[in-house]
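Newbie here. two chains, one complex. Structure please?
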Amino acid sequence: MEIEEILAFLQRFNPFRDLPAEVLGRISRQIEIRYFRTGTTIIEADEDNAHFNIVRSGAVELRIGGTELSHRLGEGLCFGYPSLLRGSRTRNQVIALEDSLIYRLGKQDFLALHEKHPVFRDFFQADETQRLRKAVESLRNARDGNGGHPMLAVPVRDLLRRKSVTFGSPQMTIGECAGLMAEADVSTLPICENTRLVGIVTDKDLRRRALARQMPHDRPISDIMTADPITLPEREQALSAKLIMSRHNIHHLPVVGDTDAIIGVLSANDLLTRLGMNALHVVAEISEAVSPEAVAQAAQKLDQVIVYLVDSGVDADHLARFVSAIGEAAHKRLLQLAEAELGPPPVPYALVVFGSLARQEQAGGSDQDNGFVLDDSYDPDAHGAYFAQLAQRLCDGLNSAGYVYCPGDIMATNDRWRQPLSVWKKCYRDWIDNPDPDNILNTTIFFDMRAIAGASELVADLRSEVLQWSSANRIFLSFVGRAAAKTRVPLGFFRNFLLEHDEQEGDVLDLKHQAIAPIIDIGRVHALAADLEQVSTVERLQKAADTPHLSESGAADLLDCFEFVRDTRFRHQARQIRAGQKPTSNLDPKTLSGFEREHLKDAFKVIKTHLDSISRSHAGGIS
Amino acid sequence: MKLSAPRWLTQGLWQRRWNQAREQSAGTPLEAYYSNTLPDPDHLVDDIEIIALDFESDGLGTDAALLEAGWTGMNSRAIDLSTAHRERIAALDPLQEVAVTVHRITDSAAAEGRPEREVLDELTGILSGKVLLAHFARIEAGFLNAACYRQYGTPFVGQYICTMELEERWFPAPRTADGLRLGKLRAQYGLPQYRAHDGLTDAIACGELFLAQIARRGSPNLKLQDVVMGA
């Protein structure tokens, strides 16, 4: 016999709702009910624990051992299980924040459920990094499965329109292949040895490499095909196809099966049809804009793109890259339009961007951070006016397009950031050789740089020297490490935001500065220390993994964290945009779901651990 | 109404009733119950085994038919749901309309129940050496006593803790007419609202209220005589 009232309660909460009713019925009879008055201790830290606990009513506070963190749990949330899973003493103290009714399950009953039911096991992980990983996965699954617009989450094989594929062999002549393409009415012909893909030929190749060069039609196709083309495994998601196409500027992508056998050719149009309005449309619209006003108008659609991509189940990393692609397009187009009016640049120069756009991590509401790196042949008297005007048009145009003026004046309109290469080098040299502890946080943004227009070799030159200098200078690294470690995970704030009762009006959680920036800092410190050329945080962490300073698992944890907090921000921004507000990184803690609160707690803990670790390994000046 | 400390202690009235009932119980299923000695009034409450009990009936008088019995074992700190029971009792008479409205138990549902005798055998079988707990326990005491007379021809004498009485005694306060109802009191202690009115849910609800009262009282070393209902 089950206990109805308890069964009905359990069915309202994860992971119990996923267990069969008869199992819940059994659990309902294994429960022991306890009551704790406000302020009393439910679980003492560093003691043996024999019970798994569920908050039936009221609220409890977990005081997380060894940290200033605390965590508030309300109705339906569970505690006291990590010690049962580890078979060790408790780490956290648990106190009743309100008069609380608690359901308890004996250790053996809990472990039996854990053993028997995967949903239960997945939900109750002893370790917060594992919980975080599960959280990221379940977010993705929830969105893929919730009937939103899971278009980007479909495997590419489902997007192929043709059921059979026409392909040639390397021994065929150019003429034979052209005939085959005409007959099958395809613009792209995969070339296969048996069924293994070895090359690809397009209409364009036939035009440019054969006809225009008057190449005899009986030459083998291998003379003009693109050998070893980029391919996409059939199981890859449409999103990957999209990114590969935009990154390599190709419109046809051969899709291959397990043994590299050709399955079909995916065209950009196939994808576009599938997606309807999408980020790349906006990029294209910006790239074709005829005036700064038109750029601004097209860039306004960024907000809708964010909503659309969030709904499509796109993960935060890809989302940020799409958002960055739009930002990048706006920069490029505005510069082209300005050059068209002002005339070609008198000396070579590069537009360099810093911060989130350099890292391809833009979100909604980003400001602009840019500068010009001028060729050393620059003569201020002769060329100064040109570049000043160019900068003015760029920065004004960006501001109108929604990339507001940089509050710290890191813009090409600032004389300091519109300088010849040699001056930039001197500037970096000075930051690195004479680090100023008060100023170091203001300069770190310059260490995330990327050329997005003009003579990119100028920036490449600058970057490689900067990396050499910084990785060799332990004092500098120690300053950067120390500055990063000072970035405070919002511990004090966290307590407030979890304690709803104490919450001050106007309290906000600043996801950008309190959750995302610390991870970026960690990535940057590792990149600078290990002389890594990668600029994006994800790539930096991947590359830094398994170095003496960052373990493989540490990097994986940070990557999960980064994905989770950015995902939280994008979903928050999508909500804001829907509500007709400007997207920001500040959110009212009250709007966080229980799921988000729970896992932000885990994320903060991981971040804190790594900031401490950085501080230990670099702050002493020993790298 | 202000209730004084339990009078049965000094008057010996209760003990006389117990002795009398024990003699009458010879040869009935209650013999086992009476053969056990009762917890001493000086016993610490924390050490006492308690059964939270609630009957659903078609009336409030001693002649009311019992429709359902719900109970669970507990002590002053925890309710042990592995001991929880909910027993439907087969109706003897057609139900009064009121009871149907109040308890949502219909004739046909009640007819599926077990005979009163069986349910009573099972309940009294576990009561030996234990103290009963109910909200407005006089009603439950009356029901149980009447049922034992009906089935065994023997009265039921037991020790009861009444959460309504405890509330008035421990935390006197001006209240509205219905201020001592189970749901109202539970809400004051931050206890959840239940769908109410099946025997087991009410028994558990009352047990939870008792846990909350003990926690609020906060005095260590409470003795049975401090909580038990006056005769």
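Moderator note: DSSP finds eleven helices and five strands in chain B. Residues 56 and 68 of chain B are 5 Å apart (CA to CA). Thread marked as resolved.
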